[in-house]
Design goal:
By secondary structure, the chain is α/β, with parallel strands linked by helices. It folds into two domains: 2-73 and 85-212, 2-enoyl-CoA Hydratase, Chain A, domain 1; 216-263, Lyase 2-enoyl-coa Hydratase, Chain  A, domain 2 (Orthogonal Bundle). The chain has helices spanning 37-48, 87-106, 123-130, 157-165, 167-176, 182-188, 200-212, 216-229, 234-249, 252-263; strands at residues 2-3, 11-16, 19-24, 56-61, 65-67, 112-116, 119-121, 133-137, 141-143, 180-181, 193-195. The chain has a seven-stranded mixed sheet, with helices on both faces. Helix 1 packs across helix 2 (87-106). It is globular and about 65 Å long.
Length: 276
Amino acid sequence: MQPIDTGTDELLCQIRDRVALVTLNKPMKKNALGDILSPALRQVLLTLQHHDDVGCLMITGAGDAFCAGGDVSEMGNSSSSQPLKTKQERVTELTERQTTLTGRLYHFPTPTVAALPGAAAGAGLSIALACDLRVAADTAFLLTAFRNIGLSGDYGATWFLPQLVGMARAKSLFYRSKRLLAPAAHTMGLIDEVFPAKTFQQDAFDYAREIAHGPTQALGRMKQNLHAGLNQSLEASLALEAKHMIESTSGTEAQEAIRAFISKRKPHFHGSKPLD
């Protein structure tokens, strides 16, 4: 296990068995984002991008929640001694904060998993949606929440959700802001696996570890192919697939897979015994 210094107890991080485990650690406030936690999360995502020993990033929350969104108690607490910002300055600042959090998470070079032990609401839901995959405890729920506090949504929620469930369902989830329980979210395709709450922590880690022990470079190229395909033509996607296939064919991962096939064994992509 390799601990990563985040600069604050509000965010924990360690690399274990090729999984970068990032834990939002404000359980008394349902892991709500704030002036300490959010910058630390941005920085740790940037740091982890450069770790070759990370095959999967899993972000979760301490206690019985994933993330309740923004910490309302910290909103509007800026010092009165600071000059007032113009509307455009505030827009630019928020755009940068979003780009360096959920944008950075969406474009993370290796697969990402959001592990939801409980509620994912507001900007917390946005973080979960920015990940490639989501798993949840059977007691967890998702909530857009923005309408409940008179806000229109941020951190990419209005882009991620229609991509995942379609526009009509996304509009219903935003306009009505009803709780979406984990089993229903699984049926809808938002959640990939639902695990019992009692064993959730271990089940979620095992899920991420299986991905982490796969062919990391190939999975990264798959992710690029899938993301690019959302906004480009078939012809452009075919060209990108061809580029990545040629790169993969000449790489060590494909060579190891071929050796394993000939030897009738599971491939050892990272020099250790593969998971059963």
